[in-house]
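User: Run a structure prediction on this.
Assistant: Running it now.
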Amino acid sequence: MADETLIPSNAALAAHPTLGREKETPMQSVVKETAPALTLAQETNPWEAQAARFDEAAHRLKLDDGIWKVLRYPAREIIVHIPVQMDDGRIEVFTGYRVQHSVARGPGKGGIRYAPDVSLDEVRALASWMTWKCAVVNIPFGGAKGGIICDPKSMSQGELERMTRRYTAALIEFIGPEKDVPAPDMNTNEQTMAWIMDTYSMHMGQTINAVVTGKPVNLGGSRGRREATGRGISIVTDQALKHLNMVPAETTVIVQGFGNVGSNSAKLLWDKGYKVIGIGEYDGALFNADGIDISELLEFKAKKGTIHGFPGAQAADKDEILVSKCDVLIPAATENVITSRNAAKLQCRILCEGANGPTTTVADKILEEKGIFVIPDILANAGGVTTSYFEWVQDRMGYFWTEDEVNQRLERIMIDSFNDVLQYSVAHGVNNRTAAYMLAIDRVAYTTKQRGMYA
């Protein structure tokens, strides 16, 4: 899936629809002057962070002002207030969001998260990241994201189902296989997707399993989807080692977060011979300089419900584990864990971002000065959305692949995408994150200009 036209020669650059513009436009001048003014207070605001990165990449691309404006803001933001009858008979009203950032390259694509701290800014940022993520791996989706402000851990299964179905009904005209395809995210899962699929199908009067991805396999889910994000992380980590002339057997790894993404990343890397020496969680961490047996840790967590007390490693501080010496650090939990407060302390050689937005823009500059090789989130964790694309394709054609076929297709796309970003970085003299954004924005901008402006 590599597109050689996206790493053009100097001659081709001059003729490229978005790169070949030497004159600085008014919007580029404004952004160039104001971009450094990002304050520390804005550092952990995900929307401000993504906007700053977009502006930097768009400035380097010399992006047309009009296209700049189109791509900088979401196409649609939906706010819904969802009345739900709770188990004790009272009625609660939950606030939900769905933001569709871009549908220029295809239907919107992005997860739905349930959490007390969900905000519109967060959902906006995640939707835009999905646009760039889908473009980096060159799949025909745009970006979208959803969320509901709630505390899912305090809600019963019945309450979660009623809330999910009412949320789906409120969005019924805005989602669908050709419009916007949700998926699981923080605190949502296969069962949540099954409820959404069923609610949507009941409204449509027929079973439509392509309305969501991340479903149970027996309802049209794809084999390999659950492990896909972790598998993608392991693939791009392999490619980084090849680029830096390193070998797995001599490479130490620390993974922050041991949920679906972190645990699968750790297991797949451990299977390949990497030495996983640290695992961090929100309430503590584990460390063993000789390596942690990830298979045993997974069995322990399945039985105990926690990693703490695992006999194969020592207890460690959750903040200190992030800045412990290792070759590969994989933050795979949540946003804003690497900031101006700890970036200078990182001792890794490779930072592979398993979570969305784990590094702030202020921290970016510190990591670049330290010479850390960053595999940015919109590339590193794109294995999940790539396999979601496979699921959508399989649902639409009614024919399903084996897990080996899914994994082979995923590996090819992730390797091609890693090489695209690396070559873009070299060709334009920028770091990997800026290269990934430039590559993604260029692809979306090119499609937007081809489609034209409907009047």
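The first strand starts at residue 76 and ends at 85.
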